[in-house]
């Protein structure tokens, strides 16, 4: 392990520190970062080398805190998306306040210590009354406010909106949340989707869809979402997650759709880990199709493309630890990504979609991730490279509390 220089307080001014000779993601050369009073006092070119790699904090825009850490309770491995849904709905009988709080708190702590600063969690919602998870997450959002900015989005099957959509929208508005729906080969799709958009406009809500999470070419939910967004002029307010079916549709058709989506400023969240694990899953057979939405083509068409953790240790994906940098490593492999060009997909792009910024800047908060690595390729190549997470100019420890 290399020795990384953190110089004495005198080198950065009273009460400060200076990180010498670091590499900064997205910038050429090496840099000295002066930290004082919990903020970045200066970022200056350095003649030193070997100071490690500094990254911005992460923004995880697609998670499921209500489902998380339930994998040990699952009776079997899911063999399809809908099999996983069935197992999760059965497990939901155990989701009382204590269970939900314990699992979600564990998730938030893991994410925080890995370097996540912003998070959006979807919450399953099937009835007129808010689910217990909604109440628990609202409480946890207040408790974690100084550590993780937590947003929450309702997740309701599209066909239920005619019956309970108005009630959900009012509750979501009151909580400052995001309105969401699950869409997959629904009958009367356009009319049902219009109801969701009507509610979003009426209550001033952002939209976040789970859409076309499968490998049937007939899945065209994203087409209807793009058309409705165009018609209403809701640029920058509509996010689509998954889009697996785009991977098996005619490329020319997909290109035309993505061009419209980019012009309409529809966002796309790609979930490589969960989708690669669950799509085309059959026991005793190697999967041929991984359900990866066309990241490169979407970004080239002007969409804001983001990468999220999605499910962590539940029926949909029994792995993960809320380490978004590790999820980025997997996305880099599965999507053939050039890491420097795509790091913003787990940081600044989702942060800005949530109305915030995680960019490192002089005068800004001393919040960043520091890896014992020469550059981003080195960091991705060595998963066990030492990592320190800095928040307000202090290094987080592995336990509760912080190290100065």
Can you tell me about this structure?
This protein is of the alpha/beta class and 404 residues long. It has two domains: 95 residues, Roll (Urease, subunit C, domain 1); 296 residues, Metal-dependent hydrolases (TIM Barrel, Alpha-Beta Barrel), CATH 3.20.20. Strands 1, 2, 3, 4, 5, 14, 15, 16 and 17 form a nine-stranded mixed β-sheet that branches. An eight-stranded parallel β-sheet has the order 6-7-8-9-10-11-12-13. β15 and β16 form a beta hairpin. α4 packs parallel to α5 and α6 runs parallel beside α7. The radius of gyration is 21 Å and the shape is globular. The two termini are 22 Å apart. It comes from Shinella granuli. GO terms for molecular function: cytosine deaminase activity; isoguanine deaminase activity. One of its GO terms (biological process) is cytosine catabolic process. Pfam families: Amidohydro_3. This is Cytosine deaminase.
